[in-house]
Specification:
The protein is an alpha/beta fold. The chain has 10 helices and 7 strands. 40% of the residues lie in helices and 9% in strands.
Length: 329
């Protein structure tokens, strides 16, 4: 699906090699199992506050990360866990932060929305809707000022896309031709409601038009198409041609707090709207792995998440004294 000057999408643009297909599935599955475990812990009140999960949005995250370089800065909105895991951050440290442990990414002080991993070029987690777009513009300006080729990936949701501060970020990014890609996850429907597949009437991808920013509406359920769109937008930014808005059409199965949005419906899996199931089906139909081999891979991922949770639980809870570390007046 395209609606921009980024060019048409050809079949060769979205093709994965066998290794890429399996790696993408493993990464998406890690996010899925991690988020499911986090949801369980949230239900048991082991995680306090809100715990927004990205179940159903794995393809958008992984596709963009596959298109990016390891040095490209990443900044997110409410949903941080998936981006961190796709970038290679230790799941145990992410889980420890959720559980308020001192070994967490922010020493147990930040929680789900304020996780930072600068060594992986990940700069939060920001709960204030649309703030990441403004700060992402700052990261992109820093890249341009330093003269490097880094391109900032800025993730936020369709609700944040309506904020005036996002429009201001678009305006400055366009005026200064900043190397940034704004990735807007459009859930296309409320969690648990009817599934919307294919292109949908939406102005999100065109919100940069007044500033001459190209936009594209992307099938965010297909990790291959997400990567292809990400590559085009990132390459454009590296060439010095400025920002792009990518509207990823996804479907989120969980509510903002982490719990199912509507009993009985929110957790229902519909194969056509599940990026993880679609990737698994492609692997089987292409005979890249057998059912037995897939189950071995899936057990490895499940065991890794279980080990991360156990490791996090075994570390000390953040103390009152920890609240004053890394804080500047």
């Amino acid at each position: 699906m395209t609606g921009s000057s980024l060019g048409p999408v050809g079949a060769e643009d979205i093709m994965f090699s066998p290794d890429e297909e399996i790696a993408a599935y493993r990464s998406m599955l890690l996010i899925r199992r991690f988020e499911e475990k986090a949801g369980q812990l949230y239900a048991l009140q082991a995680i306090h506050g809100v715990c927004p999960l990205s179940i159903g949005q794995e393809a958008s995250i992984v596709g963009m990360m596959l298109a990016a370089r390891a040095t490209d800065p990443v900044i997110t909105g409410h949903r941080t866990h998936g981006a961190l895991l796709a970038r290679g951050v230790d799941p145990a440290r992410v889980m420890a932060e959720l559980l308020g442990r001192s070994s967490g990414l922010s020493n147990g002080k930040g929680g789900t929305m304020r996780m930072f991993a600068p060594e992986h070029r990940c700069y939060g987690g920001h709960g204030d809707a649309g703030l990441g777009a403004v700060l992402g513009g700052g990261l992109a300006f820093a890249s341009r000022y330093r003269g490097n080729e880094d391109v900032t990936l800025c993730f936020f949701g369709d609700g944040a896309a309506q904020r005036g501060r996002v429009a201001e970020a678009y305006k400055l990014a366009a005026q200064w031709a900043l190397p940034i890609v704004f990735v807007v996850d459009n859930n296309t429907a409320a969690p648990g409601a009817s599934i919307v597949l294919g292109s949908v009437p939406s102005a999100i991808s065109q919100r940069g038009t007044p500033f001459a920013i190209p936009g594209e509406q992307v099938d965010g359920i297909d990790v291959r198409r997400a990567r292809a769109a990400g590559r085009r937008a990132i390459d454009r930014a590296r060439r010095g041609e400025g920002p792009t808005v990518l509207e990823m059409l996804t479907y989120r199965y969980r509510g903002h707090g982490g719990m199912p949005a509507r009993a009985g419906l929110a957790e229902r899996r519909i194969e056509d709207a599940d990026p993880v199931s679609k990737a698994r089906a492609r692997i089987l139909s292409s005979a890249l792995l057998s059912e037995r081999d897939l189950k071995v891979l899936e057990k490895e991922v499940k065991d890794r998440v279980a080990a991360a949770a156990a490791s996090a639980k075994a570390t000390p809870v953040a103390t009152a004294a920890d609240l004053f570390t890394h804080v500047e007046a």
